[in-house]
Amino acid sequence: MDWEYFFELLLGGLTRGSIYALIALGYTMVYGIIQLINFAHGEIYMIGAFTGLIVISVLSLLGLNHIAIICIAAMVAVIYSTAYGYTVEKIAYKPLRNAPRLSALISAIGMSLFLYNYVLLAQTSDFLPFPNLIPEFEFMEPYSHIFSSNELVIIAVTAIVMISLTFLIKFTKIGKAMRATAQDKEMAMLVGVDVNRVISATFIIGSATAALGGILIASHIGQINYFIGFIAGIKAFVAAVLGGIGSIPGAVLGSLVLGWTESFATGYISSDYEDVFAFIFLVLILIFRPAGILGRTDTEKV
Description:
Layout: H1 3-34, H2 41-60, H3 66-93, H4 101-122, E1 128-129, H5 149-171, H6 173-183, H7 185-190, H8 195-221, E2 223-224, H9 228-243, H10 248-268, H11 276-288
């Protein structure tokens, strides 16, 4: 057995899973609060990537350090994407808060199509090159053929986001309000929780993690176009369902399982069917364990 190739696939799958996790966190948090899927979430991820590319293109003309450029681009992309996430919640969800769930679902799909075509018209249908501004770290040079510094940054950022979200939800006032809203929205309102504020905050946090994912994956792959949000969004949604949608640890676990499955299957079977495995997983998990790996039937979702 070629152990070097095995570890290359293992680390590659961990990188894939980390990217899916950054997007899946938004899906699972929104579902945990309002019991609906934000189908425009993939487009928020795509907008974050395009925003980062625009900022990088402008800052590169100023001759700034590459690390400074990628950090500034990430911050701007996060701010811009959270504004979109907040707007989506106010336009597509808030007016339909008391309407049938199907109405909100259709509204979210409509918002997804609007953002998809908006970026297509505002940018281009062609693939655009995305520069990799993360330098190769010296201590990784002997292993650069197996694992790149870009992949290390992706995994590290995902770990930091996961730890930060766990701390936010367990130990902060807004986190407690999120848990209360997830358990019983009406009772949370009765005890003084501003449910509208909690829902908006959830959309903002989810959009921020998606924007980070957009910047990192675009830098890793080296190109973007208006369609990247669809495939990434579908796979992240599958990962959230696989792990147990509504559960933050479940979203991360499902993302890692999906990432490793894709990596090993494409490495040992065929890369032609890379995108098929996500849908196979979705069908199997819905048949044999609809609640997901860490899904539970109790009321605590976040």
